Amino acid sequence: MWSRPGQMERRKVALKVFYLGWMYEGFAKQKRTRQTVEGHLHYAILKAKLTPSIESSEYSRGGRTDTGVCAYGQVVSLLLRTRKTEKGQTEIPYTLAINRHLPRSIRVLSWAYVPASFSARFSCKHRVYRYYLPQGSLDVASMRRGASLFVGKHCFRHFCVKSKEDERYERTVDRAEILSSGEGMCVFEVVSRGFLYRQVRCMAGILLLVGEGKRQPEYIAELLSLSAAEKKPGYQPAPPQNLVLYDCVYDGVCFETAPAECERLGRDLAEEHLEKQVEEAVLRGSVEYLGGLCGGV
Amino acid sequence: MWSRPGQMERRKVALKVFYLGWMYEGFAKQKRTRQTVEGHLHYAILKAKLTPSIESSEYSRGGRTDTGVCAYGQVVSLLLRTRKTEKGQTEIPYTLAINRHLPRSIRVLSWAYVPASFSARFSCKHRVYRYYLPQGSLDVASMRRGASLFVGKHCFRHFCVKSKEDERYERTVDRAEILSSGEGMCVFEVVSRGFLYRQVRCMAGILLLVGEGKRQPEYIAELLSLSAAEKKPGYQPAPPQNLVLYDCVYDGVCFETAPAECERLGRDLAEEHLEKQVEEAVLRGSVEYLGGLCGGV
User: Measured between alpha carbons, how far is B37 from B20 in angstroms, rounded to an integer?
Assistant: First the structure.
């Protein structure tokens, strides 16, 4: 658990990371752009001098998220400098130290000591995603029926974008539900140990067709039972901006939250939410105004 | 009404202009920035070759709006090239021609022939503003009572930011109401022939204090009756992003709308509204998530 004497003492830590992904080119660091969440996160960790390099830190991420996707509870793990000795010193305030170097739309919410063998990717028991759908005239009852058909062990070959040739497509979905979030919004929540590339957006895309009455709920069962030989049906994955990596769940990891930091983020988010509410109302008003002007648009 | 033979034939036209002002540095053109609504509008009118210059076009605007303020129904008037002759040719499709050269967030909604003496500024009978306020825990009944006190002829010296030394502060407010717009939003609508600089934002700022219980509604009557000698009380004008110039009203002006153009804008706005609804829901969700994490933020 400790590094060699004389070197920076490091300990494996998991960080819970929040981000509004709308303005970033996805989570995973890329060579061709600096505008990734992970890029900012690594920069901040290095700036805070918590590790001499990311490469030497056994870094691992709970999930990858596409361009435009948000996360409330992304998790990464890595070796971080530690102050904790047998003498019972208090630990470096990790959240504070890292957040200082992050843009406002990316925040470390909490941290936890984890065993040396821990990996944010491989130790993850469940990933929870939420997909936000404006209810409008969607048939929610049919969507609920459709969503329930995803639950269980299935071949999701026709609910993903192929990423590797030899991939195995079997996945177990533990929960798939349509929740109502008030204010005319419904939320598709799906829980599984692991997902294929773009799987949630594909599931949401088909649920949207079901909600619009363009497909019957049972079509989902049909797609899940299609054989490998059969062609993937033509439909679009739902857009990324509505998707949130809601949480990554681990056994026996107890995240610590810095209350002051948490309160500050709560205030910032509440403020940003108010601004967004106003923008939403101004746009709603403009649609109504235009309807009056043009005779029912 | 007609220009000299041999020149471009022009006729006085009023244009109704919509814009989402959040990303612009106000309506009025400025030398130091290109990011004003009027700057874009003038550029588009010149690009569409509807006048050889703005300076020669008797240009006038219905209202000035601050940085960040939106408008559903701003109006400008100016001499524009015309095709209409005695032979009953159809007119140049002004809205289409100008919109082609505008960013998506600025649109000409409709146009009207107006008399040669018409001025968008001086011919305006009423300006209608709407200020959007997230209801939250605001005391709407008190705000209604407060708003009603603005109606009538008053000295608004303490409800504006001084712009000229010798200004006269008397204005008549024809209507001042708190409307409910659904989805937890209330709207302060105020109608007057003319407003002082930042008057609506000052009125909204005080109404907000009333709604928060920090002032009694009657405080508004007090402020309206303060003499010139008395110091302006310390309060902030409400922020600009919530303000919309809802309409400019004229006698006997009949705006023509291009149905195809109107339909397209309706679709664009409805789409943008959906996106904003999702962002609002994701932020609302994040506030809830954080509340759970930190124990009731």
Answer: 9
